[in-house]
UniProtKB/TrEMBL annotation:
Database matches in SUPFAM superfamilies: Metallo-dependent hydrolases
UniProt source species: Lasiosphaeria hispida
MF term (GO), any: hydrolase activity
Name of the featured protein: Amidohydrolase-related domain-containing protein
Family according to the record: Belongs to the metallo-dependent hydrolases superfamily.
Domain Amidohydrolase-related span(s) in chain numbering: 133-337
Amino acid sequence: MPFPTIDSHIHLYPESELSSLAWHTPSHPLTGRHSVAEFQTATSSPPELDGFILVEADRKNDDSKDWTAPLQEIAWARRLLAGTPDADDGFKPADAKQCLAVVPWAPVPLGAEKLAEYLAKAEEAAGSPEVWGRVKGFRYLLQDKPSGTALGDGFIEGLKLLGKRGYVFDLGVDQHRRGRAQLEEAVEMIDRAHDGVAEEEKVVFILNHLCKPDLTVISQTDPSFIAWRTAMFTLSKCRRTYMKLSGCFSELPDSLKARPAADIFSAILPWLAVVLAAFGPSRIMFASDWPVCSVGVGDDAWQKWHKVVEMVCDLAGLSEEDQRMLWSGTAKAAYNLNEFVAVF
């Protein structure tokens, strides 16, 4: 039976702000508007879908010099949550209730003082306490940053400030393209960010996309798989860490992306089994990574991934309580989602 569902990781942006996206080119497969209207089409708006968590879409930034585009993204989220769309925004006032939380970008490496300065500007861009209250955490992608970025003193200071203020940190690393070193740095980063911090002020880490394992390998004896598996169990032992069950389509070989959900499930089962064993359903949350998940997969990508996750639940024999956690309960707990109503 369908369980109440929260998609804990999607990206939205209007066509008028494409130039602010760091990755955008006119020929990019994700060019054009990707907003609530398009998301509703992709999901077919099933009644059990309670809403989504809006995660920053990698707007252009220069850390300490230029925060214009990330603040513009917060202003767009403000319009969504307030139900006051501009002509190109791609949502209706009634859609505000679907956005359960926002996770913007933040210049974490700059340290506590500059991060606090940014947070003040971000709160100003949010425009009201009600909208700002929907900001539950921040993300700073590490997957494309120089080695050692996460271990800098400023980065650790920034993480401690986020924890002190009650925000989570969405952690994006890439084992597929950057190797085991990024996973090892992530473990050390979490340890250092929690060191000497009171339990209630330790920042919560939400790991994105299984940490992007290399799903092109075909043997569980491959060094890449072994390194990733070891890191998953190590990370799962870290306090206050959660995992998003998402992002797998991007790591698949192209030949597999167009295959039925059952074929994809069979191919990636070893990785799914490791994550489930390491974290358990109370620390795993459903997420789609829409619209990124559609690249090379097609318009049915969201529904295909949903089927894969259903198969995970069935094969693992998860109880109803465990399935409720995976589909929505874990996201509620990790992001501290206390209410599911529009803010206006």
